Amino acid sequence: MDWSLLAPEYILAGWAAMVVSVDLFWGRLRKDHLAYLAATGALVATLVSLVYVNEDKSFGNLIQIDNYATFFRVFFGLIAFFTCLASAQYVKDRLLHPGEYYALILLTAIGGIYMAAAKELLTAYISLELLSFSLYVLTSYAKFDLKSNEAGLKYMLLGAFSSAIFLYGMSLIYGVSGTTSFTGIGEALRGDTSEFALAMFLGLVLIIAGLGFKVAAVPFHMWTPDAYEGAPLPITAFISAISKAAGFALFLKLFAEAFMPILDDWRWMIAGLSAATMTLGNLVAIQQHNIKRLLAYSSIGQVGFMLVGIAALSPDAGSALVLHLTGYVITNLAAFVCVIIYFNQTGKEEIADYAGLAERAPFLALCLSIALFSLAGMPLFAGFATKFILFQAAAQEDLLWLSALAVFMSFVSLYYYLVVIKQMYLVEPVEKVRLPVPRMEYAVVAVLTIGVFLVGLYPQPLFDGVENATQFVFAASQGAAVAGGLGP
Amino acid sequence: MDSGWLLFATIAVPLAACLTMMAIPSQYKDAIRWVALAAGFTMFVLSVIVFAVYNYKDGGLQFDLRLPWLEDVAFFQKDGITLHLAVDGISVPLVLLTGIVILSGVFISWNIEYRNKDFFILLMLLVSGVFGVFESMDLFFLFFFYELAVLPMYLLIGVWGASSHFGTYTRTKEYGAMKLALYLVGGSVLIFIGIFAVFVEADKGTFDLSVLGQVTYSETFQKTFFPFFLLGFGVLAGLWPFHTWSPDGHVAAPTAVSMLHAGVLMKLGAFGIIRVGMTLFPEGAQFWAPALLVLGTTGALYGAISAMAQRDLKYVVGYSSVSHMGYVLMGLATLNPIGVNGAVLQMFAHGVMTALMFAMVGAVYDQTHVRDMTIFGGLSQRMPRFTAFFAIAGLSSLGLPGLAGFIAEFNIFVGLFKEYPVFGALGILAAAITAVYILRMLAMAFFGPLNEKWAHLKEMRLLEQVGGAILIGFIVFMGVWPDPFVDRISQSVLALPGIS
């Protein structure tokens, strides 16, 4: 066991403990400074994880630290970093116990990282639970807000239910393949599966349902709108970013390493799930009046687009998916930070409340419009390039109908994003007072918006990095596969 | 210096102007105007240089520039996506057209006071996209710029546009803006799908059109996917029955945006059909040409008849655009050199004259705030120059010899008569109806006894005259000396596959 492989997570966990203690013992520290403290921790862990670039070592056959893991370490570290910064004002104004709040954000990041790094089912499951439990608590963090409590309870009950489904699926897969290791399962499936075809198929269906819940695919999406609406705003942003990204990191790795040999058995299932998800998410989003619910349904629609990448599973589609995931997360965080700023200043979250924002806070309106246009897949911004590449990848795998539907749904999404933009630019403001934007949040939005442009205008470096990362999860399906099991 | 950078500059100059204007605080309205004018003038000069320097004797693609953007990753091979800029004889006049219309558009919009910084930023973004489409030889970037040109439209119309009141009901500018945005992006869904299919079918790992153009696609594939490009680009070209966004959108738009949109953006659609559809899928074009012909003819007639029924000056011009774009599509559907030649000529001619008409309607609307021609009368007595400008645009539109429209329509009709005499006759019928509505408009609004209500009107502002004069210059130039245009266009049209 090479314990040094896990250094970034030691830092994150230690930092989480430190943040709680600092909050406990240094009561007079300004509460928003805790956010900066936690953000520093996330940044330090991110930087340390860069040490492992081009490493390819396994930690007791449980966790694989390769470029795939490193990519997601950096990715999730940065998500935690930006979430902490975006939370500072909100938590100071509205929530109790900030120490635990930031600690939980850091712990969630650990869960996400191990979901991407796990190389066998149980580790993946435990990481998934670490992520989910932290998020359940964070969702219901606004203790005196009924909506927040309801959201947390709903999220937890449905989450526990789906975990059970996921576990049952795992047990079936373990039963037929005799191993929990991803590559081991892949090896077993490459052989003769006729004897246990039914059990394996059932296990696969249950696993898809369990993961489908975590990433909020239709018909397992019911928790999303309520959880998004009830959770404190920065946590809504956090869920939309990390639970999706980590869910898809695991989805991609599990399916590429374990289930690739029986691609034809499940491709239609995922494709159907994807079609249903993008259709429902985007159509229902049209009806929404609350910006959080709008973004919730739009994120369901986005999950449908990402599932296109799983349905078209191939090394190319894998890289395209992770590229899109990165672009989506940056864009979505940018959109949410704008919503958070507006909420901090006004306490409003209906779409109608955004009337005339372009006159009251031009910069904020511009950034939000850029983020929304990017989500709709308009050029100059991340969404155009990454969607184009992702859908092209699906077309490469004979899924032109799914790409076509995805493009059409993207077009539908433009409508409801335009409705928000219309409020900001075309409708006169009710009160013409200028909205002050705090400098810190100004900077966060600016950095994220620059990210949206960078991915949209010059994706080559990012795409190279992503391909370098994803090739590790496809190594087994292409070259010699090593049979494994739980380590000693 | 590599001459391809000239093309790059046409795209980069407006973007640089955007950034410059963003840095200027919005209260310095004059500084913003001057930046816009400087950018507009630079683009005009660049496009004139491109047009003049393009060597029609050599023909083919010139001003070649390749900047790699995405390659050797996933399914992209070498030159997967390159910013590949080049122009041929078909795009050169359209580049010139864009340069002319934007310069004139800046003059016309000089007096916009309300948030003029945002206005010019979006206008420059739009123009940058337009140049990009005409100059891209990479399918990805062609589509990138195509969407970029559509992107600012919603805000341009929604914020600076005007609603139309029809007594009993109102067509709001928000309606026009949303309709336009959704139609155009909806059309691009089809283009998107077509691009995916072409990339997979060609299997070259690149979006470069010069590579994709050399692949021979199977006949079934061509027949299946040509309609995707035809309808997708056709929506922007005002293809009947998907034209309804055009009158509503153009009427709701502020003057300079109508000029650019009817003058240049609609040409993007027709250009896309040539550049992508007809170049990649000659057999598909052959197969679908009759359908295009019928739709184009219907559009030409339908637009003309609708224009005849309008009282709102801007709606007349809007429907006349549908009608004239119908000619373009008819010309393309002939698939013979003279007809396609005529179609490209018509794109240029219609671009200049419709821009002029929208500019003039805008000029009168600025003073009177109405556009109903029945309540005007005798405006020529107060605004003689304005009337002259308008009359020239109108006469060019109905195909008076000596003006730009004549040479274009003549080519189209000759091409039509060679292949489909009946449709040629219908085309001429549409031209006759054009004469009716143009002359009716001139008679009602500008001549006859002066309506005392309008006695206070003044001649248009100097800047509007300058903007109009630039356009008129090119209408007359092309009308009396079409050779520079015909020389450039015809050799490239002959080089298109499937044109004989």
Describe what is shown at a glance:
Chain A has 488 residues and is mostly helical. Chain A has helices at residues 7-25, 31-49, 67-94, 98-117, 121-139, 146-177, 182-190, 197-215, 223-230, 233-257, 263-285, 291-311, 315-346, 357-360, 362-376, 382-396, 400-425, 439-457, 460-478, and strands at 57-59, 63-65. Chain A has a two-stranded antiparallel sheet with strand order 1-2.
Textual characterization of the structure:
- The complex is a heterodimer of chains A (488) and B (500).
- Chain A has 19 helices and two strands.
- Chain A has 488 residues and is mostly helical.
- Chain A has one domain.
- In chain A, strands 1-2 form a two-stranded antiparallel sheet.
- With 500 residues, chain B is mainly alpha-helical.
- In chain B, 73% of the residues lie in helices and 4% in strands.
- Chain B is built from 20 helices and four strands.
- Chain B has helices at residues 4-23, 29-53, 91-108, 116-135, 139-150, 153-160, 173-202, 209-212, 219-236, 245-252, 255-280, 282-309, 313-334, 337-368, 379-382, 384-397, 404-419, 421-446, 462-480, 483-495; strands spanning 62-70, 81-87, 164-165, 170-171.
- In chain B, the strands form two sheets. Chain B has a two-stranded antiparallel sheet.
- In chain B, α9 runs parallel beside α12, α14 (337-368) runs antiparallel to α17 (404-419) and α14 (337-368) crosses α20 (483-495).
Write the topology of this structure:
The complex is a heterodimer of chains A (488) and B (500).
Chain A: H1 7-25, H2 31-49, E1 57-59, E2 63-65, H3 67-94, H4 98-117, H5 121-139, H6 146-177, H7 182-190, H8 197-215, H9 223-230, H10 233-257, H11 263-285, H12 291-311, H13 315-346, H14 357-360, H15 362-376, H16 382-396, H17 400-425, H18 439-457, H19 460-478
Antiparallel strand pairs in A: 1-2
Chain B: H1 4-23, H2 29-53, E1 62-70, E2 81-87, H3 91-108, H4 116-135, H5 139-150, H6 153-160, E3 164-165, E4 170-171, H7 173-202, H8 209-212, H9 219-236, H10 245-252, H11 255-280, H12 282-309, H13 313-334, H14 337-368, H15 379-382, H16 384-397, H17 404-419, H18 421-446, H19 462-480, H20 483-495
Antiparallel strand pairs in B: 1-2, 3-4
Helix pairs in contact in B: 1-2, 1-4, 2-3, 2-4, 3-4, 3-11, 3-14, 3-19, 4-5, 4-6, 4-11, 5-7, 6-7, 7-9, 7-10, 9-11, 9-12, 10-11, 10-13, 11-12, 11-13, 11-14, 12-13, 12-18, 13-14, 13-17, 13-18, 14-16, 14-17, 14-19, 14-20, 16-18, 16-19, 17-18, 17-19
